[in-house]
Amino acid sequence: MNKKENSRAAAFKFKPELISTYLLPALLFLSFPFIIYAHYLIFLKVPNEKIMGAVQRIFYFHVGAATSTYLIGGILLIASISYLLTSHKIFNALNIAAAEVALLLASITLISGSIWGHSAWNTWFRWEPRLVSFLILWFILLSLCFFRRWANPDKAALQSAVLGIVAAMMIPIVIYSIKLFPNLIQLHPIVVEKGGLRDQRFIYALSWSILAFAILSSLLLSFRALIEILEQDYKIRDKNG
Amino acid sequence: MKELKLLFKRELAGGRSLIDSGLMFGFFASLIVVIYSAISQGELEPTEKIFACINLIWLILPLAATVCSFKLFEDDLASGALYGLLEDGFKGWQIFFVKASLSAIFTIIAFFISLLGLFLLLNLESTLLTPLLFYSCIVGAIGIAVLTSLVAPLVLTSSPRGAFLPMIELPFLLPLIIAGAEASKSSLSNLTNNLLMIQILIIITIVYFLLGIILFKYVVNE
Asked: How far off is chain B from A120, nearest CA to CA, in Å?
């Protein structure tokens, strides 16, 4: 980092201890009841769907993971832009954490979607807009993680921030892929907008599962970011002897 | 404007990397023509042959553009000339614009040579050469050149270098490749929604271009 970047980083006041002292315990405390309650709703409260039966319950995990992928993708974009503006290590750590957690969530979405698709439509994968665009997003996140691992350590933070912004541009394409292309080639239904979830219990369970996934992802993100900050501090101390 | 002219002159005077890029595009275009011949001899339906060739163009030329950007940046980064230009007062976006323009020119030429080969070898009717086909190739080539020019210096400065350039770049190129191939195919088969793909292609290209202009200074930051 040059002097200008150092001064910008110093101007942005943030103590990493805030994560370990307040944020992590709060998220841990919140995540357990949310996850348990979401499971209670999904497996004990919600009735079987008429056509698909019990297998439809994977929908709550699939949609929850997909929504959290977009959420963490948004954090990746914000962290990348913030790092370019402030050069603060917290945003660098958030950039790494967001890329890895988003990759994990995207993998869960793809795997749960394949299992559900095999039961509902008798196919593991089909070349349709939403599935293809989401698979591309998964590959982009994977290449972002690889780049981070192999990049020049002196330039990794800045260059990952640039690549993080480019990667986040894929998320709107994934979200709007359902609306952009004609219905004939679509496999994914626009369930919520077309009033497909008529039973209030379905909507209630879906809302809780999305919330539980969002909190769990935030917890993973904070953990990974904290580990990265500690690793960076350790490297600096090691370098200085 | 004056700086852009100077940078273009510098690139043209440099010569070696441009000749390398030209030769490399020639190699990939010949490769496409060789595979065309194999496809034209096969037992596919005429429409299937055309679609296979279009897919081939949209798969091989992005790889060629990737290697072209790699060549355009390699010497400048290794010798430190790129950082010298920044110290001399040239802006990051100006360097990006010049490099991406050169890469785009090569890619557009290679696209048209490949299309010409396709029409000659498969004896296609000239009425199929619609403006939409030209637009999709030009916009797609610009998008590919812009993206490869943004990502190439990132990869060149990382440790395993060239070996993992396609691995990093290909996922980012995939939306352009798919939209471009679909736009070209729909223009050839007169599908009803043929404008949708070219619109997507234009939007992605504009977004990548703006990102390149804004972010390139961070890519070459020492």
From this structure: 27
The C-alpha torsion from B196 through B199 and B204 to B207, rounded to 10°, is -140
Give per-residue pLDDT as tens, A23-46: 888 888 888 899 999 999 888 888
Single-letter amino acid, residue A105: L
Instruction: Determine the Cα–Cα distance for residues A101 and A97; give it in Å rounded to an integer.
Output: 6
| CA of residue B18 relative to chain centroid, distance | 15
Q: How many CB atoms lie within 10 A of CB B137?
A: 24
Query: Which residues 107-166 of chain A have a CB within 8 Å of chain B?
Result: 132-133, 136, 139-140, 142-143, 146-147, 150-152, 155-156, 158-159, 161-163, 165-166
Give the separation between CA A52 and CA A118, rounded to whole angstroms: 11
Measured CA to CA in angstroms, residue A50 lies from A14, A57, A211, B216 at distances of 52, 12, 25, 54
Predicted ipTM > 0.95? no
Q: Is A53 helix (H, G, I), strand (E, B) or coil?
A: strand
